[in-house]
Every structure is written in C-alpha cells, then in structure tokens.
Amino acid sequence: MIYASRSERLDWLISRLIEDVPQAQGIRIPADITDKKRLFRALMNVREPKPVTTEFLSAQDEELQYQLEEKSVVNLDGEGIEIWQGDITRLKVDAIVNAANSRMLGCFIPLHGCIDNAIHSAAGVQLRLECAEVMKGQGYEEPTGMAKITNGYNLPSKYVIHTVGPIIYGDTPNDTEQRLLADSYRNCLSLAEKQGLRSIAFCCISTGEFHFPNELAAKIAVDEVKTFMSKAQNIKHVIFNVFKDVDKDIYKKLLQQNIVSE
Question: ∠ CA(24), CA(29), CA(33), 5° rounding?
C-alpha cells in the first residue's frame, strides 16, 4: 500500500493495532505526529504475540526505519573493550544484549523506560513473535543467568541476545545472585562466540529495575568480559553501553579509559 504521507501511514498502523488490542477499543488517533508515534509504540508494547499480515509488517518496517534514520545509526567498528553512552538501539554491532524478564516476550507496560521495552519497540512486532516461538519450544520460563539469541529485525544490530539477570530484593546481593549475574555475561558471550559474532554491546544487566548495585554489577561485568576475551576466537569487540552518567563514571574508573565518542 502507498501512503500519501507518514501521518497517514501511522494512522493506518494505529488503526490495525487498535483492532488487535482489546483494551484499546475506542481510542482516538491524535493529530500530532509525535503523539501518533507515542500511541503507535504504546500499542505495540501491549499487543500479544499473534499472527500479523505482511501488509502490516511492510508499513511498520517503513515507519521504524524512518525512526531509526531520525535517531541516526552509530557504527562502532573497533576492537577491544570500549564504553559508549547512549541509546543501545542505535548501535550497529553484531549483537546487542537485552535485559529481559523470565517470560522473554518484552515489556508489556506502555512506553515504559526499561531497555526491554526500548529494544522491542525499535525492532518491531517480529521480535516478540520470534521470542514467543522460542519460549513455546522451550516450554518453561527462562532461567536466570541463561541467554537466548534472536534476529534484530529493524534494529541496526544483526541480533539480540536476551538474558534474565537476578532481581535483588535486599541491600546487598548474596553469593548466588552475584554468580547468576556473572552467568548472564558469560552465557551471552558464549552464545555470541558460538554464533561466530565479532562484536557485542552489553547493557547494564540487572541494574535499574532489578536493583543490582551499579558498582558491583559493573565490576562483575568487566571481570567476566576480560576473562572471556582472553581466550575468545571470534569476539574481538565488546562495548559496555551505559545510559546514566553514574554508570559511565563507574566503567571509566574500572577500565581506566575514556568513553567512546560517536
């Protein structure tokens, strides 16, 4: 289908999503393009993983590629271990790591600020569909510390590696929780290595919503990456993607290096 404008394409996409989302019935499509984009993302967030038409995917992909152009792609084509601050969905690397939950279907809270929501929103509904197939085949929720790989779809990264980090309920993670976070990093790296990938970008797994202390989480991450990189055959480039200044400062101190600029 050919649309007269981006606004018209968004209207059509939103209308199809409203049809798919029972709780969205009666929602009126806003006139402002920014509001349309927010509603489009919110409806994608709550849509269950069910079949979708090729016509919808074509229109969705056009819109998400346009949004990616607006954000601009960041190509980090280096070697070794680096730090980059910003939106992980802009990174053109072989794989980005998603801090998932045990259902592995993405975040269902509309417009939530977590990385799981950001990655699924930028990738498109195909990512949730593939995750649903993976989990259906597995038959049980994803254990903490393990990892799964999917395609990246509308992301600039070829793949997404999903891992469930430990959730911390007390003030200090115990030995088991620290081991599980180390497992998440190690299993993501092992999966990337097995897949023959050269580059991987890690988010700050288990910090934020899962309440793992930032400094301890970063130390575990750096230790695991350095150990793995010392014997890796395929992986040549690991990026620690940070969003908050506090994490940037922690990683700079641990790695004794400056942050990578675009």
Answer: 130
